[in-house]
Amino acid sequence: MDRHTSQPPSLALTFSVAVLATALYVMSAQSAEPPRRAAVKPAAAPAAVVDLPTEMAPPMRLTAGKSTLLKLTEPITRISVGNPEVADVVLINPREVYLLGKKSGSTNVFLWAKSGRTTIMDVIVSFDAAGLQDKLHHLMPEEKAITVSGAGESLVLSGKVTDATRVQRAVFLAEQFGSKKVINLLSTTDPMQVMLEVKVAEVSKTVLDKLGSQLSWSGTSGRTAFTLLTSMLTGGAGSVGVTRSGSTNALTLDAELRDGLVKILAEPTIMAISGQEGAFLAGGKVFIPVMQGSMGAAGVAAFTLEEKEFGVGLKFTPTVLEGGRINLRVTPEVSELSQIGASFSTGTGATSVLPTITTRRASTTVQLFDGQSFAIGGLIKSNVTEALKKFPGLGEVPIIGALFRSTEFQQERSELLFIITPRLVKPIDGPVALPTDRFVVPTPAEYLLGGQMEGTSRSPAAAAPAAPRTAPASPSSGAAAGFELK
Fold it and tell me: Taking the CA atoms of the chain, what radius of gyration do you get in angstroms?
């Protein structure tokens, strides 16, 4: 009986465990089913991805060595700079960006927002043009029309200044401000023009003294004949000879004394704008062959002709300063062809003589007022040449030795002087009188019958254009070449 009462509880426990396990399985299956459906849905709809555009922001201009803070309208997550050597970019927070200009140049910055939008911004770094502008206005307060701007790695100076000296000062300050290159676009309000009156005087003196002899003597003593022949002639201007009649004995003396004096005078007038160079040359040109490279396979070298100028030349650069002072840099030069050339051997073995040029040049810088003059002298050339020919032994005898020697003495001395006078000039308004305005072509009757080279009356057509003209100006009035003294 006890057995029948113990079996039912075992069956009931087994059944309960099976029911509980089935319920737990169903519940776990139901709870795991929704996540599986949620993971599948995004893969089934790829068309929901949005392609956001890329925007270009206005360029950001920075000054080298200075920084700024950029405020953003939306938060960003990432930032990138193209060239970190030009600018340094730091993301402070999602809405603020710190930018620092390192050196002049340009680069770009990429900004990625949280929304997925990309913004590109150009960054341009230049020199401190505003700082230089303030410095120029402080040091040159009277020059208020100077404008400073940047162009890449250069500073650009534009506007107008009073004179060329102020231009040089502004460019010098810009170069000292740290810029590697300064582009000068400055112009002067009233460019001054300088007329240079130059007088060139050269005195050259030459002394030539020659003395020579020729002796011809013969004699016999028994069967012995004696002969004495000397030829010490110098090719002088004159000779004196003594010959014994009926004999071959002769004595000839020649001598020459030459004294020359040459005076050369040139008076050029040159014009130049303040700050620009003017030049003058009165002379000629000579072509000198110059060998190019080494000799070729055939042993023949190639030559080209190089042009050389000689004569009286002058170069000057005037700069008008404050108060009418003129800063003048002058380089006068006098060159001439030398009588003795330079010989050289060609590749074929022939010998040629090249012309040589002797040059005397001076260079100086002075400051003076309008109408003042200064002189450049001391350009002296002095050459002394002596030659002696004599018969050995006999030529050293004190008195008779003069018959057995010849002497030649030559001295050349020249001195050069420049007198320079600068003048401030300005163009003349209206027509300029010329010396030819008063010339009248003679009529056939005046030329053939009267023998006149110039007519006495002019026709109305010829007289009409001469009415507004004034009388020819004298050289001292400064109205030459269409300019008048200020």
Answer: 51
pLDDT digits (tens, 9 = 90+) for 373-408: 888 877 777 778 888 888 787 777 887 777 778 888
Query: Pick the residue with more confidence: 245 or 346?
Result: 245
Question: From CA 92, how far away is CA 98, in angstroms rounded?
Answer: 7
**274 and 320 in contact (C-beta within 8 Å)?**
yes
CA distance 152 to 107: 12
Identify whether the C-beta of residue 142 lies closer than 8 Å to the C-beta of residue 120.
no
Neighbouring C-alpha atoms within 13 Å toward the C-beta of 51: 2
Tell me the C-alpha distance between 74 and 403, whole Å: 118
Would you say how long the chain is, in residues? 486
How far apart CA 477 and CA 484 sit, in angstroms, is: 7
Cα 433 to Cα 474: distance, rounded to the nearest angstrom: 11
Instruction: Return the structure tokens found at 18.
Output: 């099976």
The separation between CA 465 and the C-alpha centre of its own chain, rounded to angstroms, equals 45
- The whole-model pTM stands at 0.47
Residue 151 per-residue DSSP state: E
